[in-house]
Design brief:
This protein is mainly α.
């Protein structure tokens, strides 16, 4: 085995060698802040509503956060000249700190929403820079390992977040869940210029693609409204409106001089567009997991705490497969993406006949089968995600690397937001609300999992035509 600082080493622990330790801790810390806060907030929000009210605005806590995070990711590519990447990281951490402080002191839900928007912008900046710094901090043979590290952090956060949130779930203690983040974010903001490289600024333009950003935000907000609308016809029109906004975004993006995505990012004949498409579809399909705890509790009589840990198997599967396939190269990478997408599709589809089946007696065999399939969903995404990131880093042209890295987070957020919102539209339209009860939950679950198997199939089709990345052209 080569020593830890040997450039030829591909061990995950090389990321924490003396040469890379400071940068790895900083980048891992940014992803950890984003991930843990996501799960902590989901856990404490019922307590927030009980304490200060605002139940009608509940869904917007997530919607504004995701929308702002997309805008934060775009900011990387349009930041002012002279603002280096490491100082941009400081700005992102400072905004995350400010948003957390606003939430901690918020007297009303409206102020919480303002804090979540600021927090989301900072989080989107940090997450995007995690990918952007990969090519500056690590040699090329460690790119997939860095992405594997991020997957591991998300997997661990799935367990830490809800547990930590449980400590702050009583009364007004939820404020401490936001306040405890402030010193960590402050430390990261101060240390980023010292521990991270400046990063070369190879951009040819820095102006904001204003129309695309407006259309992108509009599509996210429309589909989020659709997920909470009570009337079916209103849901349909809102989804149609969101799709029109996306179509308009693609039309404008293809013709604009100022773009959100790198050149070719919206042209399906270009490999980079198919990589982004695969990312979007993989994440959109995976977000049907937001209803897994509901079906576990209402169809299988699983206690809430246990259902939370079962749905955490998604992140555990992602982390496990990311470790297993991180050393793959060339054609094996493409096969891994293809196999992962097909596995995700099959597992989601089979949940329609396992998880969506009434099981009031808690039949262990049926529940075990569902748990294995839930693990398989995440395992499938993990087989391909790191390789898709590597494809993007290779396919983007030198002057658009920052924009390409921002596109990764944009597709990740878009896929999750659209998937979550469309999940709500499907279940609310197929029985969850009417007739409701066990019968309605079974009907809604069947439709949800049957339909959400399709995006993963599309991701597999996109993966089938991807080129083989060329190695040896990038160094750190």
């Amino acid at each position: 085995m080569p020593p830890a600082d040997d450039p030829s080493s591909t061990s995950l622990w090389t990321l924490f060698s003396a040469k890379h330790l400071g940068a790895s801790l900083m980048l891992a810390g940014g992803i950890a802040l984003y991930a843990i806060e996501t799960y902590v907030t989901a856990t404490i929000m019922p307590s927030v509503v009980r304490d200060i009210g605002g139940l009608p605005l509940f869904a917007w806590v997530t919607t504004l956060y995701v929308t702002a995070s997309v805008l934060g990711s775009v900011f990387i590519a349009i930041r002012p000249r002279g603002l280096s990447l490491n100082r941009t990281y400081s700005v992102g951490a400072a905004l995350f700190l400010l948003g957390s402080a606003i939430c901690a002191a918020a007297p009303t839900m409206e102020i919480v929403l303002a804090g979540r928007a600021v927090q989301g912008f900072g989080a989107g900046t940090l997450a995007t820079l995690g990918y952007a710094f990969i090519r500056y901090v690590y040699p090329e043979n460690l790119w997939s390992k860095a992405t594997t590290l991020y997957a591991a952090i998300w997997g661990i956060s799935t367990f830490i977040g809800p547990t930590l949130g449980g400590f702050f779930a009583d009364g007004s203690a939820w404020r401490h869940a936001f306040a405890v983040i402030v010193p960590f974010a402050l430390l990261m903001s101060l240390l980023a210029p010292r521990l991270l490289p400046k990063g070369a600024d190879e951009r040819t333009e820095t102006k904001a693609p204003l129309w695309q950003m407006i259309l992108l935000s509009a599509s996210l907000l429309l589909v989020s409204f659709a997920s909470t609308a009570e009337k079916v016809d209103l849901r349909i029109w809102l989804v149609i409106g969101a799709l029109f906004a996306i179509a308009a975004l693609v039309w404008v993006e293809r013709r604009a001089t100022l773009r959100i995505l790198p050149r070719g990012g919206t042209v399906l004949s270009m490999p980079i567009a198919r990589v982004y498409g695969a990312m979007f579809m993989l994440l959109a399909a995976l977000t049907c997991d937001i209803y897994i705890p509901y079906f576990l509790q209402n169809l299988h009589a699983v206690p809430p705490l246990i259902s939370g840990y079962i749905v955490a198997l998604v992140a555990l599967g992602w982390t496990a497969s990311a470790f297993l396939c991180s050393d793959l190269k060339g054609k094996a990478m493409r096969r891994s993406i293809l196999a992962g997408a097909m596995l995700e599709s099959v597992c989601i589809g089979l949940l329609a006949v396992t998880l969506a089946r009434p099981n009031p007696e808690g039949d262990a065999l049926l529940l075990s089968a569902a748990a294995i399939l839930i693990f398989g969903m995440g395992f499938g995404v993990g087989l391909g995600w790191a390789h898709l990131v590597t494809h993007i880093l290779h396919l983007a042209e030198p002057d658009e690397k920052d924009k390409a890295s921002a596109g990764i987070t944009t597709m990740q957020s878009l896929g999750s937001a659209f998937g979550a919102a469309l999940s709500g539209v499907i279940v609310n339209s197929t029985g969850l609300l009417n007739p409701g009860g066990v019968e309605g939950a079974a009907s809604a679950g069947t439709w949800l999992f049957a339909l959400f198997a399709l995006p993963a199939v599309l991701a597999a089709l996109a993966a089938f035509s991807l080129p083989e990345p060329r190695y040896g052209t990038q160094t750190a």
